[in-house]
Design a protein that fits this description.
27% of the residues lie in helices and 25% in strands. The strands form two sheets. Strands 2-3-1-9-8-10 form a six-stranded antiparallel β-sheet. Strands 4-5-6-7-11-12 form a six-stranded antiparallel β-sheet, covered by helices on one side. A hairpin with a 5-residue loop joins strand 4 and strand 5. The radius of gyration is 20 Å and the shape is globular.
C-alpha cells in the first residue's frame, strides 16, 4: 500500500521541519511496515517521507524517498506501474542506467527526461511527489481513476500533502474545522465528493490531475478524462471485448516480486477475475 507525505515551503525558518515530517511519517506507519525513509533538502525547503510495503525489488535498492544519482530529483511514490518494464527498456535504449528493479525509479527517470508528460505514459495506480532541488519545484500527480489517495493543504506559500488526512493533520499546520461542503456531500451521497474532505481547506487532488508548486504558488491541471462514445454491438462482441480487457488487465497485475492474492467477495466482478 505504501504511504507518502511531504512539506514544501519558501520560508526555511518556518517551524521544526524534521519534527513535523517525522510526525507525518508516523501517522502513515500502518501503510508501509517494511521500510521507511525521510528526505530533507539541504536548504530545508522540502521534506519528503515514505513508508514502504515492498512489492517490487524487495532489496534496499527500492528504498524511498529515492533520488537521482546527481541528487537533483527525489521522489516519494505510492502505487504500481504495470507497464514499468516496457518503459524501463525504452529508457535503457536511450542510454539511461538503472540501479534498481523498481517502478519507482522508472517514474523518476521518466520525469527527469520529459517532465509533466511522464503521467501520459504511466499505466497503473499512483500518487507521487517529485522534488526538483535545482529549480526548487514540486510535482504531484494522481492516477487517472484516483485509485491511490492524495490529500493536500496550502497555508500561504507552504504546501503539505499526504496519502491520508491524518498525516496532513499530524503536521500540526491545518486548523481542524468541519467542511460544510464535504459534510453535505457525505450526508447526501454517502461519500465525500472530490475535491472536498471533511476538513476545511484540506483537499483531495482529483483523479487524473497533477499539481505543481513553484515559488509558493500552485498550478493544477487535469491530464486525463474518460472518453465514452456509445456504440451498438452484439452480445458476443461485448463478451469478447470484456474477456480481452480482463485478461490484459490481470496479466499486468501479476507483475510482482511477492505472491499475488485476490479478495473474493462473491460478486460478479471478483468472481470473473478469479475465474
Amino acid at each position: 500500500m505504501c504511504g507518502i507525505a511531504g512539506i514544501i515551503k519558501l520560508n526555511t525558518n518556518y517551524g521544526n521541519l524534521e519534527a513535523k515530517i517525522e510526525k507525518m511519517q508516523t501517522a502513515l506507519k500502518h501503510r508501509g511496515p517494511d521500510d521507511a525513509g525521510i528526505y530533507i533538502s539541504t536548504d530545508k525547503q522540502a521534506a519528503l517521507a515514505h513508508t514502504r510495503l515492498s512489492i517490487l525489488d524487495l532489496s534496499s535498492a527500492g528504498h524511498q524517498p529515492m533520488s537521482t544519482s546527481d541528487g537533483r530529483y527525489s521522489i516519494t511514490f505510492n502505487g504500481e506501474i504495470y507497464n514499468f518494464q516496457e518503459l524501463r527498456e525504452n529508457l535503457i535504449s536511450q542510454g539511461e542506467k538503472f540501479h534498481s528493479q523498481t517502478d519507482t525509479e522508472v517514474i523518476l527517470k521518466l520525469y527527469q527526461k520529459i517532465g509533466f508528460n511522464c503521467v501520459q505514459h504511466l499505466r497503473g495506480m499512483f500518487a507521487f511527489a517529485i522534488w526538483d532541488d535545482l529549480e526548487k519545484t514540486c510535482f504531484l500527480a494522481r492516477d487517472p481513476l484516483g485509485i491511490k489517495p492524495l490529500y493536500y493543504y496550502q497555508l500561504g506559500t507552504t504546501l503539505v500533502f499526504a496519502s491520508e488526512l491524518r498525516a496532513v493533520l499530524a503536521s500540526g499546520l491545518p486548523a481542524i474545522n468541519m467542511s460544510v461542503e464535504g459534510l453535505y456531500g457525505y450526508l447526501t451521497t454517502g461519500s465525500v465528493p472530490e475535491p472536498y474532505t471533511l476538513i476545511t481547506d484540506i483537499h483531495c487532488l482529483p483523479a487524473g490531475n497533477w499539481l505543481y508548486w513553484q515559488n509558493g504558488n500552485t498550478t493544477k491541471k487535469q491530464y486525463w478524462q474518460i472518453s465514452f462514445t456509445p456504440e451498438a454491438i452484439s452480445p458476443p462482441e461485448a463478451q469478447e471485448i470484456v474477456r480481452k480487457a480482463l485478461l490484459d488487465s490481470i496479466q499486468h497485475h501479476f507483475i510482482s516480486d511477492v505472491p499475488v492474492g485476490i479478495f473474493l467477495s462473491g460478486g460478479i466482478d471478483s468472481t470473473t477475475i478469479l475465474a
